[in-house]
């Protein structure tokens, strides 16, 4: 398995999965400094269907969303780590600020985001639901975030 699939490759894979009647789950995020909350979230996302495709924000996208000092871990390393988790079947990058375009191309059967997102605010919900799919949220079991980890490191190692 390769760590990153191109847009063309992931669309071809999706087409084949649809022909096999596999239920495709899609989620997305930055996943910068992977932690237990991420792993729990991805395990739950995978459990919702047969195949989990993860849309990973590119470095440029993370920088625009999170600020000039992010990401901490570059896209190739983030993709490598994520693609080696049991729950994740495929990783593809997207450079846009939202996954709207890739969701419109993939049209997953199930779109999943964290419970910190209100269903009506989930990007791509309209596309998925218009095509007979479902949009779900997953509750977080840990109060962990990359931002909190970075802040902890800063506080602990101040001189």
Helical residue percent?
A: 40-55%
Mean pLDDT: 93
Largest sheet entry: 5 strands, parallel
Per the CATH scheme, the topology name is Rossmann fold
Low-confidence stretches: none
Number of helices: 7
Domain module tally: 1
CATH class: Alpha Beta
The helix/strand class is alpha/beta
- For the termini, the CA-CA separation is 43 Å
Q: What would you say the CATH architecture is?
A: 3-Layer(aba) Sandwich
Question: CATH H level: which superfamily?
Answer: HUPs
Radius of gyration: 16 Å
Strand/helix succession:
HEHEHHEHEHEH
Total beta strands: 5
Strand portion: 15-25%
> What is the overall silhouette?
globular
User: What is the topology, as strand order, of the major beta sheet?
Assistant: 3-2-1-4-5
Summarize the topology.
Layout: H1 7-19, E1 24-29, H2 36-47, E2 51-57, H3 59-66, H4 75-83, E3 90-94, H5 100-106, E4 110-114, H6 125-130, E5 134-138, H7 146-156
Parallel strand pairs: 1-2, 1-4, 2-3, 4-5
What does this structure look like?
The chain contains seven helices and five strands; from the N terminus they run αβαβααβαβαβα. The protein is an alpha/beta fold. It has one domain: Rossmann fold. The protein has a five-stranded parallel sheet. The mean pLDDT is 93.
Question: What brief labels describe this structure?
Answer:
5-stranded parallel beta sheet; 159 residues; alpha/beta; single chain; globular; Rossmann fold
């Amino acid at each position: 398995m390769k760590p990153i699939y191109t847009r063309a490759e992931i669309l071809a894979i999706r087409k084949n999965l649809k022909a096999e009647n596999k239920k495709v789950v899609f989620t997305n995020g930055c996943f910068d400094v992977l932690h237990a909350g991420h792993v729990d979230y991805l395990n739950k996302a995978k459990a919702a269907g047969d195949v989990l495709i993860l849309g990973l924000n590119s470095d440029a996208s993370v920088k625009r969303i999170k600020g000039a000092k992010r990401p901490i871990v570059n896209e190739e390393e983030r993709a490598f780590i994520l693609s080696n988790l049991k729950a994740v079947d495929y990783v593809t990058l997207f450079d846009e600020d939202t996954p709207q375009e890739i969701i419109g191309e993939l049209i997953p059967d199930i779109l999943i985001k964290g419970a910190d997102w209100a269903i009506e605010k989930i990007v791509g919900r309209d596309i998925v639901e218009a095509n007979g799919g479902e949009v779900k949220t997953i509750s977080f079991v840990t109060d962990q975030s990359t931002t909190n980890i970075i802040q902890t490191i800063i506080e602990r190692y101040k001189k």
